[in-house]
Amino acid sequence: IEEERKKEVTALVTDLHPADIAEIMDDLNLEEAKFIYLLLDGEKASDVLIEIDEDDRRRFLKILPPEMIATRFIEYMDSDDAADVVANLDEDVQKEVLNEIEDLEQAGDIIDLLDYEEDSAGGIMAKELVSVNENWNVATCLKEISRQAEEVDEIFYIYVTDNNDKLKGVLSLKKLILNHTNTKVSKIYDPEIQKVYTNTRQEEVAELMDKYDLVAMPVVDEIGRLQGRITFDDVIDFVRDEAEKDYQMVSGIAGDVEPGDNVWEVMRARFPWLLIGLLGGILGAVVLGTHEESLQKVTELAFFIPLIAAMAGNVGVQSSSIVVQSIASGVKDIETPARKIIKEISIAVLTASIFAVLIFCYNYFVSGNMNLTYSVSISLFIVILFASLFGTVIPLILNRFKIDPALATGPFITTTNDVLGMMIYLTISGMFFNLV
Amino acid sequence: IEEERKKEVTALVTDLHPADIAEIMDDLNLEEAKFIYLLLDGEKASDVLIEIDEDDRRRFLKILPPEMIATRFIEYMDSDDAADVVANLDEDVQKEVLNEIEDLEQAGDIIDLLDYEEDSAGGIMAKELVSVNENWNVATCLKEISRQAEEVDEIFYIYVTDNNDKLKGVLSLKKLILNHTNTKVSKIYDPEIQKVYTNTRQEEVAELMDKYDLVAMPVVDEIGRLQGRITFDDVIDFVRDEAEKDYQMVSGIAGDVEPGDNVWEVMRARFPWLLIGLLGGILGAVVLGTHEESLQKVTELAFFIPLIAAMAGNVGVQSSSIVVQSIASGVKDIETPARKIIKEISIAVLTASIFAVLIFCYNYFVSGNMNLTYSVSISLFIVILFASLFGTVIPLILNRFKIDPALATGPFITTTNDVLGMMIYLTISGMFFNLV
Question: Rounded to whole angstroms, how far apart are CA atoms B203 and B78?
Answer without folding.
Answer: 22
